[in-house]
Design a protein that fits this description.
Helix content: 25-40%
Radius of gyration: 14 Å
InterPro entries: BrxC, Thioredoxin-like_sf
Organism: Chryseobacterium elymi
Shape: globular
Number of helices: 4
Protein name: Bacillithiol system redox-active protein YtxJ
CATH superfamily: Glutaredoxin
Structural class: alpha/beta
Mean pLDDT: 87
Largest sheet: 5 strands, mixed
Strand content: 15-25%
Length: about 120
């Protein structure tokens, strides 16, 4: 890994390598996440893969979530690649689009959302 990858988040910091993330890559994936929220809390992390701030927030969040309840599904949305799904989340739940953004859903409704430096595992509890 190069010096710049260590500073700016190279491929080893890619959320696809983290086993706890479930990807949202289609409206069907989003529907499954919302359905799962009727059984336990669901959190969606909307991430901009080109943004240094988003990479930093994601990295810090991933460090925090090790101590979370196992009855939680964590979903990852690459909002640059799947912007239409990000827009659908904003429209369907009536929340403003931000990046990075953490959205917590329970019983099919948003119970908490945070963006930028306000994102923390404490939003899920």
């Amino acid at each position: 890994m190069s010096f710049f990858d260590k500073i700016f988040g190279g491929k080893d910091n890619n959320p696809e390598h983290q086993s706890f993330w479930k990807k949202i890559e289609s409206e069907e994936d989003l529907a499954k996440a919302i359905e799962a929220s009727h059984h336990h809390k669901v959190a969606i992390f909307k991430h901009s893969t080109r943004c240094f701030i988003s990479k930093t927030v994601l990295k810090n969040f991933e460090k925090e979530i090790d101590n979370l309840d196992d009855k939680l599904d964590l979903y990852f949305l690459d909002l640059l690649e799947y912007r239409s799904i990000s827009n659908k989340i904003s429209e369907d739940f009536g929340i403003r689009h931000e990046s990075p953004q953490l959205i917590v859903i329970e019983e099919g409704k948003v119970i908490n959302s945070a963006s930028h430096e306000d994102i923390s595992a404490s939003q899920i509890s």
